[in-house]
Specification:
By secondary structure, the chain is of the alpha+beta class. 32% of the residues lie in helices and 15% in strands. The protein has 2 domains: 7-82, Roll (Ubiquitin-like (UB roll)), CATH 3.10.20; 91-159, DNA polymerase, domain 1. Helix 2 (91-98) packs across helix 5 and helix 3 (108-121) packs parallel to helix 5.
């Protein structure tokens, strides 16, 4: 076994503070899934191509297969499990369901997190802006149209725009 020095990390994940000891080379996605048991964040390609591992780190969408767990030290992390509050789905999750924006569901957590970041940071969410925002997320099942409709619908609700 390698004689790696273990590192201490402290992160706020989905609103709760977690302290852990990790190998410096442990990827954030594996820390989330294996150490914290939050399996909603998926491992797709391990190359940052597919976006299934997307989470919010200090509010910004990042691909957790491209970061080490130690890079999250002292930061706030939100995974797909953090969207639901007190048994209520997030409006984006509801829109994905209402618009039939998922099939197999494997890409869905990453799509949700990238979409939420886009809604939170874009002044005017349009079909075109959503297509650009989700360019780093791959879905092999849906053809994207229903996903785009769900994101635009949620943005209208959240931002008070008229449909």
């Amino acid at each position: 076994m390698d004689d790696l020095k273990l590192e201490q990390v402290k992160v706020s994940i989905n609103g709760r503070t977690v302290k852990a000891t990790v190998e410096p080379r442990k990827l954030l996605v594996h820390f989330i899934r294996e150490d914290l048991g939050l399996t909603g964040t998926h491992v797709g390609c391990d190359t940052s191509y597919c976006g299934a591992c997307t989470v919010l780190l200090d509010g910004k969408a990042v691909k957790s297969c491209n970061l080490f767990a130690v890079q999250a030290d002292g930061k706030s992390l939100t995974t797909v499990e953090g969207l639901e509050k007190q048994g209520e789905l997030h409006s984006l999750q509801k829109s994905f369901s209402d618009c039939h924006a998922l099939q197999c569901g494997y890409c869905t957590p990453g799509m949700l997190m990238s979409s939420l970041y886009h809604i939170n940071t874009c002044d005017q969410v349009t079909e075109s802006s959503v297509r650009k925002a989700l360019a780093g997320n791959v879905c092999r099942c849906t053809g994207y149209q229903n996903i785009i409709e769900a994101v635009v619908s949620t943005a209208r609700q959240v931002k008070g725009e008229i449909a």
